[in-house]
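Re-running Aldo/keto reductase to confirm reproducibility after the cluster update. Everything else is unchanged from the original entry.
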Amino acid sequence: MSKRELGRSGIQVPSLTFGGNVFGWTIDQPTSFSILDALLDHQLNFIDTADVYSRWVAGNHGGESETIIGNWLKISGKRDKIILATKVGKPMGEGLVGLSPRYIKQAVEASLKRLQTDYIDLYQSHDDDADTPLAESLAAFDSLIKEGKVRAIGASNYSAPRFAEALQVSKDHGLARYETLQPEYNLYDRQDYEAGLEKVITDNHVGVINYYALASGFLSGKYRTAADAGKSQRGDNVVKRYLNVRGIKILQALDAVAEKHQVSPTQVALAWLIFRPGITAPIVSATSLQQLQDLALATRLQLTAADIETLNQASAY
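Result of re-run:
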């Protein structure tokens, strides 16, 4: 499988990122282990998680995903086989939130312990922290890189102006810069990324590992009528947000291109993303080996210019 560089970090990754939010949420540890093993079989060795995954589940406290990955790393001995990304900044309890230097140093040690590793390949700000000066947060991240605990840093959920400001602060102060950005972006949700972030990304050679690559499963074709809302825990929200005239038009275009290539709509939606300027490795998740197989095949699909134009027209605002 061909590799792509995460910004200017020198870190090479496959064209899909696996989202570890499912570990400890929708799949248990044994199933998670089987998925992690299969990821390497498919040469999809870039895994993204966060300290807060999956704190929202009843009985969880956060750190469940990192703990499962860490347990797998200990048993498998395959730390050198994967590129590991995690995040800091979302609420983890009273006083445990944000991007202050003190908290960043505290949070990275907790993540390293749960992951059972002595370094993180990509450490990301999960949210912008308006209460902490960018220079202070970036200096803390820079120190972690110099200590060898982190190889590169990235950000998630930043606006275009704020992300551009962060890049300038790094340049002005001689600090490590955000090499990646993690925005919401897919064939349906295009406007925010393309209207502002895309130019900042491409002008500065930043990598993009976008989340909700399949619009919470909508672009897989799983939700085609209101009755399909019951197919998953998030089905109601998916149907309310995406099942409209434009959404149906996008599904029809995906179906047409998928039929032409004899592949699934999932593979087409991901192949469109992989083609987009600045996109490095869209984030995808799977809860079964069958789903993972479908995702992996997307990396091999070559869309034609006509295919891309069909999808662009269908998803135009």
